[in-house]
């Protein structure tokens, strides 16, 4: 179905609503489902255990939930994917891809910086992955005959560095690529259109947009979706239907929220460049920040996230976080309100010193998730905090 992103955000996953006689997304909280016959139940169970969809009864909520499935359909449409598979958190989704790709106990190539907990999961040894950390231009040399997966993020967390997805896929060769698309959202970027195998989101962030849902989702092809559902069934990493309802309810405003926050981010980034407390601003919309010209081609816009480095390093960053009043000092991102945090001390705290340095994460860096407040109010708050650390 080829619809504008704003139309898909409003109508995606709602094709059944007329037949159901509802206008708002219904919540199906059943943990078990009546069977029309033993034979039908067995056939449905067999189909789902093989990674497919129910053939009649959903049987049991760990196998399938209609509320979750409708939101998955909507995300697949936004991403230009065959299907999407939802999980109880973004990290459950990351783990599921590693399992489905055969990366557990195998070889993975990863490009830093990544979301801190993804980095930590790969480096921890928990899943027995052998990881080669490669620069973007070193991916082709890092790939081996036994490489199961290439993992990257664009825009990168927290430096906002952009990666050319088609070049990355070409460098990976026959090895499938997982891209964390959380920062961009499907509004600004659809990685599967550029050859990526899995496009992953922490749906806790912008897809929810209101700071009240924990979820993850992966958009992919039908065969890969089947493998992901098998992992979800076996591990129990299911998304609660109440969370799926909230996510579906929030989806129609996703493009509006992204575009409003992006306009604010563009203005704030331009002003931060001029502030004497700031040594560097990381934002794809700034002059020179996108040498490959990916904004406007691969991405529909520079996004809602930015980062900046402070003259006074760690102490100055701590001072700004303590001094802001309107902006909330907190981890996470993509909410309607603006959030500021210190990557080296929080989201990327468990990343090794070497890993942070390789990813360009400095002690004086702050990451700002820009919300939809009035931009002058945001700037007044941020500028006042910056003035205090330079005064």
Give a quick precis of the structure.
By secondary structure, the chain is an alpha/beta fold. It contains 15 helices and twelve strands.
SSE order and pairing:
Elements: H1 5-11, H2 17-20, H3 38-49, H4 66-79, E1 83-87, H5 90-100, E2 107-110, H6 116-124, E3 130-133, H7 139-142, E4 147-153, H8 165-172, E5 177-180, H9 185-188, E6 198-202, E7 216-220, H10 222-235, H11 241-250, H12 254-274, E8 278-282, E9 305-310, H13 313-323, E10 328-329, E11 339-341, H14 353-358, E12 365-369, H15 375-390
Helix pairs in contact: 1-4, 4-11, 5-10, 12-15, 13-15
Number of domains: 2
Shape by Cα distribution: globular
Number of helices: 15
Strand order in the largest sheet: 1-7-6-5-4-2-3
* SSE run: HHHHEHEHEHEHEHEEHHHEEHEEHEH
Helical content stands at 25-40%
Which segments are poorly predicted (pLDDT under 50) over 5 or more consecutive residues?
none
Helix and strand content put the structural class at: alpha/beta
Mean pLDDT: 96
Largest sheet: 7 strands, mixed
The CATH topology of the largest domain corresponds to Aspartate Aminotransferase, domain 2
- Briefly, what CATH class of the largest domain? Alpha Beta
CATH architectural designation of the largest domain: 3-Layer(aba) Sandwich
Radius of gyration: 21 Å
DSSP strand content: 5-15%
**Beta-strand segment tally:** 12
CATH superfamily of the largest domain: Type I PLP-dependent aspartate aminotransferase-like (Major domain)
């Amino acid at each position: 179905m080829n619809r504008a992103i704003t139309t898909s955000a409003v109508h995606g996953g709602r094709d059944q609503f007329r037949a159901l006689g509802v206008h708002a997304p219904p919540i199906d909280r059943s943990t078990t489902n009546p069977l029309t016959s033993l034979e039908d139940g067995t056939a449905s169970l067999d189909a789902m255990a093989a990674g497919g969809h129910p053939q009649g009864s959903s049987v049991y909520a760990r196998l399938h939930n209609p509320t979750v499935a409708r939101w998955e359909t909507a995300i697949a449409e936004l991403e230009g994917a065959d299907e999407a598979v939802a999980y109880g958190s973004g990290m459950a989704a990351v783990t599921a891809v590693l399992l489905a790709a055969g990366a557990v106990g195998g070889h993975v190539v990863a490009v830093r910086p990544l979301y801190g907990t993804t980095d930590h999961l790969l480096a921890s040894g928990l899943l027995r992955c052998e990881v080669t950390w490669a620069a973007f231009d070193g991916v082709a040399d890092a790939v081996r005959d036994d490489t199961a997966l290439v993992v990257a993020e664009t825009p990168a967390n927290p430096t906002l560095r952009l990666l050319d997805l088609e070049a990355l896929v070409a460098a990976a060769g026959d090895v499938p690529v997982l891209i964390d698309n959380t920062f961009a959202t499907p509004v600004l970027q659809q990685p599967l259109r550029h050859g990526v195998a899995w496009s992953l989101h922490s749906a806790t962030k912008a897809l929810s947009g209101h700071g009240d849902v924990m979820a993850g989702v992966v958009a992919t092809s039908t065969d890969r979706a089947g493998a992901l559902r098998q992992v979800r069934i076996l591990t129990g990493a299911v998304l609660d239907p109440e969370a799926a309802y909230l996510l579906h309810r929030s989806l129609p405003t996703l493009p509006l929220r992204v575009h409003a926050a992006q306009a604010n981010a563009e203005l704030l980034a331009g002003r931060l460049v001029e502030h004497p407390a700031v040594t560097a601003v990381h934002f794809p919309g700034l002059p020179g920040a996108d040498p490959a010209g990916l904004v406007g081609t691969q991405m529909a816009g520079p996004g809602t996230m930015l980062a900046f480095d402070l003259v006074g390093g760690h102490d100055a960053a701590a001072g700004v976080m303590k001094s802001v009043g309107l902006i909330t000092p907190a981890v996470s991102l993509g909410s309607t309100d603006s959030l500021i945090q210190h990557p080296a001390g929080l989201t990327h705290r468990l990343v090794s010193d070497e890993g942070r340095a390789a990813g360009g994460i400095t002690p004086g860096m702050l990451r700002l998730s820009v919300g939809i407040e009035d931009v002058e109010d945001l700037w007044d708050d941020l500028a006042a905090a910056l003035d205090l650390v330079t005064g």
